[in-house]
Amino acid sequence: MIGDGLFLSGPVFTLLKSHSKYAIAVMKDKTRQIYEEVVALSNITEPAIYRQNKTCYRVWEHKISGLWDGYKGEVIAIKSEETTTIRRHSREAGSDLKWEHIKKKAEWMWVTNLPGTGDLKNTVRVCHCRWQIENQCFNETA
């Protein structure tokens, strides 16, 4: 199950695990202890770095346990810093069709109880699929 930050709770992860299911939830709440742990661990470890199309990814993967009262299992926290280079026409007054390169930055964090992801690049892709699923559903019901 891939879900929003609302699904990032010990009881939800415990329920899914009891049915032999796994969860991936986006982490938005910066006040959570697990968020602080991921930031601290990322500051002392090297990320995996790769490019895909116009985006450069710096991704950290951390195994964490014991940070939720409602979930006793180990989770994997993933932090992704993504920089996408976009080329567009310059907005300078009087410029003749000059191109400028803009860098857009985004930071994502997810928590999952998937067993050993192995392929971090694929895991990040799956985590981002949540937006595609939600947008598809909303477009079909509108």
UniProtKB/TrEMBL annotation:
* Originating species: marine sediment metagenome
What protein name applies here? Answer: Transposase IS4-like domain-containing protein
